[in-house]
Recover the amino acids of this structure.
């Protein structure tokens, strides 16, 4: 596949009076610069290696995604399935990559369709997949997702495509098992708890980034950075059918909640830290489970007693012996 290499004299030239304000190509600031021009373009879009802009960023770092939450709440909003979680100490967060600051985990929601030929918000190489899982993170300095949405650099949405798989995906199994308890709209249940690493495929390279608008059911509009990793989930026919058994607010099966595809409108789609084969845009599913790349944050490293009992395996042997004596 052909990758578009940007040239300094060809990359979306701005008016002469703005030229001096354009950050240096190759910096994080250059990515953020385009939010002013492309942040309100509609989403979702088609993502492909072809036509994307290769770009180098620091490695994306994942913290506390192996830490078990205190509780995990699964909700049927009537429009989507929503996952929220609470930790007794520090929440999972991201650093590095295309981020200038720490970005904290907020929530997860899903998109699906009436059959296995539709369901994903984004298309990849002009192909739509059975589903999509979108994970929301917000910049830590804004304290809450609601406040972060007021700022163009406040919210990041990581979008995992869900492929069809013959066998059920263990990543999704512990979530789908709670669907029978939330069939009606506006209902919730507890699931797990399991750490987020048991649901999210973590990555530090090979992903796409673009700017675009997030329009809510209420009609509000916000500027969001969208990340689409080449790593993806998969789901069996039975797992995807569980989504279609959920009811909408009118007590009818919620058969499809994906959004209509939008034009790229010549916006920048950054291909960050490409590494694996460029034959297909999405990577093949791993044959064996991949080891976690999540690390403990300094807050936990400096006070291991904050870890929940399920994470006792992370403690050094001397700490385990002390706990057993207590």
């Amino acid at each position: 596949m052909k990758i578009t290499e940007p040239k300094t004299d060809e990359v979306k030239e701005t008016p002469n009076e703005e030229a001096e304000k354009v950050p240096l190509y190759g910096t994080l600031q250059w990515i953020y610069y385009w939010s002013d021009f492309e942040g309100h373009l509609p989403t979702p879009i088609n993502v492909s290696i072809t036509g994307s802009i290769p770009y180098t960023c620091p490695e994306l770092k994942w913290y506390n995604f192996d830490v078990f939450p205190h509780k995990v709440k699964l909700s049927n909003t009537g429009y989507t399935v929503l996952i929220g979680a609470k930790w007794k100490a520090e929440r999972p967060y991201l650093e590095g990559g295309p981020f200038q600051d720490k970005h904290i985990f907020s929530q997860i929601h899903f998109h699906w369709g009436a059959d296995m030929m539709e369901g994903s918000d984004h298309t990849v190489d002009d192909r739509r997949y059975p589903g999509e899982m979108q994970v929301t993170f917000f910049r830590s300095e804004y304290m809450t997702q609601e406040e972060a949405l007021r700022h163009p650099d406040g919210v990041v949405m990581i979008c995992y495509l869900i492929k069809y798989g013959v066998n059920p995906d263990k990543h999704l199994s512990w979530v789908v098992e709670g669907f029978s308890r939330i069939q009606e709209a506006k209902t919730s249940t507890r699931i797990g708890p399991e750490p987020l690493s048991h649901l999210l495929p973590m990555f530090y390279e090979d992903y796409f980034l673009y700017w675009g608008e997030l329009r809510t059911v209420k009609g509000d509009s916000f500027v969001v950075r969208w990340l689409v990793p080449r790593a993806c989930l998969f789901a069996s026919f039975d797992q995807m059918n569980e989504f279609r058994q959920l009811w909408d607010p009118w007590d009818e099966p919620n058969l499809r909640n994906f959004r209509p595809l939008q034009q790229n409108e010549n916006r920048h789609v950054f291909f960050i830290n490409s590494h694996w084969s460029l034959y297909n845009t999405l990577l093949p599913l791993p044959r064996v489970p991949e080891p976690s790349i999540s690390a403990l944050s300094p807050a936990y490293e400096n006070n291991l007693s904050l870890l929940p009992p399920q994470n006792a395996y992370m403690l050094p042997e001397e700490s385990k012996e002390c706990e057993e004596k207590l």
Q: What stands out?
A: Residues 171 and 200 are 7 Å apart (CA to CA).
